Amino acid sequence: MQLRSIELVLPNVADAAAFMTDIWGMASAGVKNQTHYLRGSGSFPYLVALEQGERNFVRSVTFVCTEQELAALKQRVADSGLAACPTQSTDLGGGEGIIVELKEGELFRFLVNAEEVDPIEGSDLPVKLTHVVCNAIDAEATGDLVEKILNFKVSDRTKGMVFVRCNNAHHSTAFARAGFASLNHIAFEMEDMDGVMRGIGRLRDHGMVPSWGPGRHGPGDNVFAYFIAPFGPVVEFSTAVEKVPDDYQVGAPEDWTWPENRIDQWGMSDKDFTGLRTAEEAFKFYRDWQSAPVL
Ligand SMILES: [Fe+2]
Questions:
Q1: What is the pLDDT of residues 234-289, one digit of tens each?
Q2: Ligand 1 centre from 28 Cα, in Å?
Q3: Looking at domain 2-112, which CATH architecture does it have?
């Protein structure tokens, strides 16, 4: 199972796409049905879809999986009573599968037979998405739910987050103990730490500074730099998230404490808590489909 893409709907899609290509550093993968598709250097046809709409919302977070994983998932979803629906993707790469609405409205889509493309060598593009994090009213319950229904595994719990994996990367998603449900941030995997630093430089060329970072997280051990995109959401350059074994010992909040004046391993940058908090409310999930049997 791999995190592939996020599908966003928003009013001013052309400006958002221009930011993501010209400044953030992605490549256009084309425009189809008033949707701008943006890709990285990896083999996924796109990582971010920006669809023209009247207001902001998250249509889905998309994972790709095997036929076997999808069959088992369908059974667990059917048994769970969660809202869900079979789906045929009309996005680049196609594929089919199901979309599931979790308890707090998060919309996770699971596809098989989605096409891949040739990677782009020698570019400075983000490689892929490394995680998409959601804000949750009850992150603990959501962590339990995704373990039970989606077969994801909680990797670590901290005071602020429940980190969840769907393969050997420490986390592909996480649920922040926010007290409200929304998109928390979208993180892009860069080739290496230099890629993250060059990204920070590129944004600086356009008058933008990180809202937090550069730094290195505790859980996942990844390097990060968070920015608030002009079209609303929090986006992150990241690299080198830890790979974990199947029997990874799940950490508890008391395992992840910081010395005074530290909230990451390096302690070299301030965090714009207020700005990030506002940006985290820019996009909420919205379901515009009816639940239907998935089996
Ligand atoms: Fe992150």
A1: 999 999 999 999 999 999 999 999 999 999 999 999 999 999 999 999 999 999 99
A2: 23
A3: Roll (3.10)
Q: How far is the CA of 189 from the centre of ligand 1 (A)?
A: 10
Q: How far apart (Å, rounded) are the C-alpha atoms in residues 286 and 246?
A: 33
Q: Is 128-279 the same fold as 2-112?
A: yes
Q: Distance, CA 97 to ligand 1 centroid (Å)? A: 27
How far apart are alpha carbons 106 and 102 in whole angstroms? 5
Enter the tokens of residue 105.
């409205």
Give the single-character DSSP code of 76: H
Q: How far apart are CA 21 and CA 43, in angstroms?
A: 18
Ligand 1 centre and the CA of 22: distance in Å?
22
Q: Confidence band (pLDDT; 50, 70, 90) for 19?
A: very high
133 Cα to the center of ligand 1, angstroms = 7
Mean pLDDT throughout 157-175? Answer: 98
Angle, helix 67-80 to helix 139-150, in steps of 10 degrees: 120
CATH code for residues 128-279: 3.10.180.10
Interval between CA 138 and ligand 1 midpoint (Å): 19
- Per-domain boundaries in the chain: 2-112, 128-279
CA of 83 to the centre of ligand 1 (A): 27
Reported as a single tens digit per residue, the pLDDT across 30-58 is 999 999 999 999 999 999 999 999 999 99
Q: What single-letter DSSP state applies at residue 19?
A: I
Put simply, whether the predicted model's pTM sits higher than 0.85 gets the answer: yes
